[in-house]
Every structure is written in C-alpha cells, then in structure tokens.
Amino acid sequence: MSPPVAPQGWSRWLVPPAALSVHLSIGQAYAWSVFKPPLESALGLTGTQSALPFQLGIVMLGLSAAFGGTLVERNGPRWAMTVALCCFSSGFLLSALGAATEQYWLIVLGYGFVGGIGLGIGYISPVSTLIKWFPDRPGMATGIAIMGFGGGALIASPWSAQMLDSFGTDSGGIALAFLVHGLTYAVFMSLGVLLVRVPRTGPGARGGVESAATAAGARSTPTGPQVSANTALRTPQFWCLWVVLCMNVTAGIGILEKAAPMIMDFFANTSTTVSATAAAGFVALLSAANMAGRIGWSSTSDLIGRKNIYRVYLGVGALMYASIALFGDSSKPLFILCALVILSFYGGGFATIPAYLKDLFGTHQVGAIHGRLLTAWSTAGVLGPLIVNWIADRQEEAGKTGASLYGLSFVIMIGLLVVGFVANELVRPVHPRHHIPAPRQEVLDVERQQPESA
Amino acid sequence: MSNDSSQSPPDRRGLIAFAWLWVGAPLCYGLYELVQKATQLFTG
Question: What pLDDT, in 10s, does the model give residues A394-443?
C-alpha cells in the first residue's frame, strides 16, 4: 500500500484528529480494570487471571511497536491505522465470542494478543506523519496524539461501566459489551484511516499543497541529518534516550501504581485522613495531570528545546519526590501538588520523546526508532510497580505504617531520576558517520512517497 | 496541469470542524466524567 499523499489544499489540521481517533481508541487499554470484577464473577477467575489480557496486550504493544516500526515506515500511516483498526476491533470481537461461550482463553488471545498488536501499531502509526506535517512544532503535534492515549481511558472507563450496568455483568452482558466496543471503535478509528495523509514531496508539492501545507511548515522531504532505524540502535544517543524514558516512566509509575493507597497511608496517622472516595478523586486528578502534561510540556519543548525540557522532567521531578519524602505527610496540598507535577512530567516524557528522536535522527525513520524506544516503557512498566510494591510490602512486614512505607521507594525514585538526568546530559548530536548519505536518502524518500494515483 | 495548479484549493473548513468534533465530543465526555470524579478529592 502506498502512503496516501495529500491532495491540493489538504490542511495539516486534519492530521491531528486522524491521529486522535486512533489514540483515543487504543487508550481504552488502561480502562481494562472495568472488566475485571465482572469477568472474575462470571467466569470464576482470580485477580491475576483477569489481568492477563491487559498484561499480554501491553507486552504485545511493546513488541509490535518495536518490530513493526519499519513496516509502518515503509507502508505509511494509512496502512498502519488500518492494521490497528482491524486488530484492535477484532480483538474485541474475539473477546465477545470468548465471553459468550465462556472460553476465557479466547478473551486472552483476542484482547491481549490480537488487540495488543493493534495497540502497538496504532501507537506509532501517526508519529512520523505528524512530525512531517508540523516540523515547526513537532512537540505539540505528537503531544496531541499521545495525549489521546491518556484520554482514551478517561472515555472508556465510564462508558464501559455504564454499558455493563445496562447489559448486565453476566457472561452474556460482557459479551455484548465487548461486541459494542469492537464495532464502535472500528467506526471511530475509520476517521483516522480516511483522513490521514502524508505531505507531498518533490516537484509535485508545488502549487496548492505548497501553499497550504509547506508554507505552514509541512515538509515531506527530510531536512538535516537522517539516520536509519537500524543504525540508530548502534548510537549512544538512542540508548541515552532509552535510559531517560525508562527512568522518567518508572518514576511516574511509582506514584501512579499505588496512588490511592499511598495518599491514604500518608495521612493515616494525621488529623486530616483521606477517605477511599477522596483517594479515587486523587487518582482521577492524577490522570488529568498526566494528560495535561502530554500536550502542555510537549508543546513547551518546541520553545525551550528537548534537552532542557527533560532537564525539567528529571531534575524538578527528583525535587518533587524529595519534597514529598521530606514534607509530604505534613501538608496535604503540598503532597497533591508534587504528585500532580510528577504525573504531568510522566505524561510529558512520553509525548516529547518522538520530537527528541526527530531532532537527533531526523524524520526518515523516526516512527520505527520510536517503536524500538518503547521497549523502555515496557521495562519501566515492570520496574516501577515492582519497586514500590515490593518495598512497601517489606516495610509493612517490618512494622512500619503511614508515610514511612514509601520513604525508601522515593529515595530510589530520586536516584533513578538522577540517572536519567545524567543520561540526558550525555546526549550529543549523532556523529555524521551514522547519517544516511544525502543522494541515497532522496531516492529512498521518493520511493516511499509515490502518489496513490500518479 | 498549469490550470490545475492555479485553481484555488477546495475549502476544507467543514471537514476540519467535523473531524475535530468527532474526536472532541467523546474527549469532552471523558473530561466531564473525570472532573466529576476528581471533585471527590475535595468533597469525599
């Protein structure tokens, strides 16, 4: 499938909603917990078993983003969004069949394996295209899309809960809910498939598209140094950014994973205790900060530079953790404020990384490079909860209560953020020996962007 | 060809509005639900 080239007069402002239609859909993954209790009671599952589809989905997200990135670059965003749509929706349809027939393995296979491929391909599908359309504001452009991934759970969580209330929480009701999810997401994501376009390249770009897009900054032909995805893996810059992302995500997950019990524990021994309802409100507020950070901080990176914004995420993030550890239990507003800032940096770190990659490796295969860097996310997804939960359990066994359950975790988080800060400081421009020679680069781009109907 | 390139490009404002409404409406619903829940921190 040839990448869909923008016709004359195509607006670049049609590309972010195309990306959002995919990211808002696949972001549903973080609302999987809504289905856990009904599945456990309807199919007699344990909590660990009911988490399997989500866990497999996240593993498949990382794998398909890492290994499918080159295919996405070669075949273009419409192909990638079509694959994401088919996999994500058919994952739900398979799950519906699994729930209807009470065959849990079909739900794991459908939602986890098939749907997980849709998550990974869908996540990276619009990144490279957005950066090409918005070379003047790549941070803002990718921030909009990646904000959608955070927003997807905000939509799906109440929507799925209401659906289960209406259809019932027995296996038939769950099957119907999965079916409606699959069909609705297929329709919703189709907007992205239909709207997404890559900017024109070469002489054909003159005229309408030139005035509408290029004048606004869109550029299909890469400018500046370009590095292929395979070569990028051999550069220290890639691995420095891998460490940066991994440390930043681990620090964010450290709060996110145990947010509700954490705020309750912190103020358990004070006069201002926090109820379970208020703790749920705190978790919701953290989600808002996560989302706001994705668009806000990522757009700010266009103004102050990628390296500087990661200095803020990692340096100020460490200070926020230190503030919580030292004074958090004495002031609820301070605790909430610091946690919100940390979560906004967590979201910002995700959203800014594609633009950082573009700055270092160019736009040539930035989607594929981004896909491979997401393995840092998978690692952090294991590391963050492991640190916080393991340490909290050991501290509890040692007879500690309240804020002291988390003190050591926070010290470790500060250490990880410092490691990330140092890795960010080590990032330098990629050595010219890794660059793709200019003539070969032009040939590759012309090959990749043949118009659909020449 | 020169005529094609001299034609003014079609007006896409309607399509842009539709596309942003398509993604904006469910996002607003999600944000509304989020705000409802987040206020529990101060009232719960």
Answer: 888 888 888 888 888 889 999 999 999 999 999 999 999 888 886 555 55
Q: Examine the domain organization and report whether A97 and A186 are in the same domain.
A: yes
Question: How far B9 CA lies from chain A's nearest CA (Å)?
Answer: 4
How many CB pairs lie under 8 A apart between chains A and B?
Answer: 106
**Residues written for chain B:** 44
Best mean pLDDT range from A74-78, A255-259, A432-436: A74-78
3 state SS of A225: coil
Asked if residue A337 belongs to a domain, the reply is: yes
Q: How many domains does chain A have?
A: 2
Helix axes A259-266, A276-304, angle to 10 degrees: 110
Measured between alpha carbons, how far is A413 from B9 in angstroms, rounded to an integer?
53
Q: What is the ipTM of this complex?
A: 0.86
Distance from CA of A120 to the nearest CA of B (A): 20
Same domain, A274 and A411: yes
Q: How far is CA A45 from CA A12, A95, A107, A178, in A?
A: 47, 15, 12, 18
- In the 8-state DSSP scheme, what is residue A198? B
Residues in A touching B44 (Cβ below 8 Å): 275-278, 280-281
CB–CB contact B19 A14 (8 Å): yes
Nearest chain B residue (CA) to A11: B12
How far is A282 from A8, CA to CA, in rounded Å? 48
Within 8 A by CB and 6+ apart from A386, the residues are: none
Q: What percent of chain A has pLDDT over 70?
A: 91
Range of the domain at A86: 12-214
Distance from CA of B18 to the nearest CA of A (A): 10
The whole-angstrom distance between B1's CA and the closest CA on chain A is 10
Number of H helices, E strands in chain B: 3, 0
What CATH number should be reported for the domain holding residue A387? 1.20.1250.20
A238 shares its domain with A188: no
Which residue in the block uniquely carries the two structure tokens 């794991």? Answer: A108
Q: Which of residues 11-30 of B touch A (CB under 8 A)?
A: 11-12, 15-16, 19-20, 22-23, 26-27, 29-30
Say if the Cβ atoms of B9 and A9 lie within 8 Å: yes
In a domain, A222, yes or no: no
A218 contacts A11 by C-beta, under 8 angstroms: no
* pLDDT, tens digit (0-9, with 9 covering 90-100), for A161-197: 999 999 999 999 999 999 999 999 999 999 999 999 9
* Residue at A395: amino acid letter: Q
Q: Are residues A354 and A265 in the same domain?
A: yes
Q: Do B12 and A211 touch (CB under 8 A)?
A: no
Nearest by CB to A14, from B6, B16, B30: name it. B16
Residues of A within 8 A of B14 (CB-CB) are none
